[in-house]
Amino acid sequence: MKTEVIPTSDPNAISAALEFLHAGELVAFPTDTVYGVGTFAFNGKAARHIYTVKKRPPDKAIPILLGDISQIPLVAVNLPESALKLAEFFWPGALTLIVPKHPNIPQDVSSLDTVGVRIPDHNFTRALLNAAGPMAVTSANISGQDSPVDAGEVYTQLSGSLPLILDGGRTAGNLSSTVIDCTGEEVVILREGPISLKEIQAILKN
Q: What is the pTM of this model?
């Protein structure tokens, strides 16, 4: 497969991405943290391809990115109060919240009863997500290798495995998002990232 690289400044960038996504293909693009690779959140077959391309363990769920908080009811149910509070304060931003999964989310995106969701703090990415709807997205790298922070690093790892990389230059961050499980009585940090547990606890105490 030939991998095309298009700058995010290209007026046809989003329409090109949507064409590939509707065909069940994967697309890589920048976020506020690292570059991601993804597909429609409700396309289980395409989501399975993410695992293949990344050599990702099949029991590791794929997070879902949203363009706007109004999309949450499409992917999650029974949102805990802690999740709503953290989303209101930190989104858009580098915080992934683990919440109860909507039954419409394919098992290939998450085989668990939960799913990770976030809204990236990146104007182009949110424009793409608002055009496409919720997307299952994870870092655009081979599992175990460094997460890419520019399109060249994505190309080095994944060229030939996907048809399109959207080049937005180097990402503002270089760490994957903080992941917080909001499904228990107390929130639990599952992955440290740009937002600290101390910052999260401070918001929940207010």
A: 0.95
